[in-house]
User: What shape does this take?
Amino acid sequence: MRSETDLNDDFQKPDDSLLDFLKMFPRMFVHLLLSPLFLMLVLAQCCFSSVIAGLATFLNKFLERQYSASLAYSSLLVGAVNLPAVAVGMLMGGVIMKRAGLSLKTIPRFSVAMLTTSTLLCVPLFFMGCPTQKVSEVNHFQNAQYGSLALCYSNCSCPAGAFNPVCGSDGVEYISPCHAGCTNFTKDPNNTHRVQLYTSCRCISGGQSARPAPCPNNCPHLLLPVILVISLASLIACLTHNPMYMMVLRCVSSEEKSFAIGIQFLLMRVLAWLPAPALFGTAIDTSCIWWKRVCGRKFSCGYYDNNILRNRYLGLQVGYKVMGILLLMMLGWKAKRTQEYSLEKRPDGPL
Assistant: This one.
């Protein structure tokens, strides 16, 4: 039978091992950060994780603003097309890793080839879009009858925070029926609480009427091609997910593997998943050309410059991918030199 002293020693061992780990933590952390292979690989993964963070956070909004898709339909397309493509890419990447037997030397080459292809597929997306529709007093400031648009509704006392877009018969969108100078309306015969048409609109030339809805843009037909291109680019990029994860395990010693994985995910959260959504959000906000206001303060964006929005949102993704590819190219060069040095090294003494 074990003595009480032995039992007390067993209870003390977990505390001692935890204390030893806490003492070793700074040294192991610095040692991993000073490893060129590990550091470049994790930084490359942070670049690609930033792209994923931008897509996961703002892709629905991008599709909604660019192609006049509803938020529900955008979410349906992302869930039905893009996410399965990502899952298939990760699965195929694992199969390729196993069948091809990718080594520490060939993984960076494979990743650079796949990610370069994925980046090139994003180039057509810059041209698959339409400019912002004409909006009165936002990007369209001329009226054929009054010259200045503000004169046609100067007697209407329109509230500064009014935002109820209507589409005029002249093809111009107005912030509200008041800003279109409308003085009458026709109710929907099937629903008396709904307006069917605004009439007697002084600011609208021609028919002088407006529909109670924003004017559609000319790009809804591009929605499906765009989501297919984005999904294909995501599938090809995700082929590198498992190989790069396995490379992390191969570039550190066996006693540091579990610690290296923890540091890897820590750095990815701090360097990618925290700042990337804020950076993408800033890029989107700076493309706003008219803000909704509540109590005189900016509340949310009413209208974006679609060309600037598309170029900044996609350009930021391409920029992250290019930085990641450059890091992987440096990583491949370093891995090649490291492997050649290891092959040349011989143990001392007789064989």
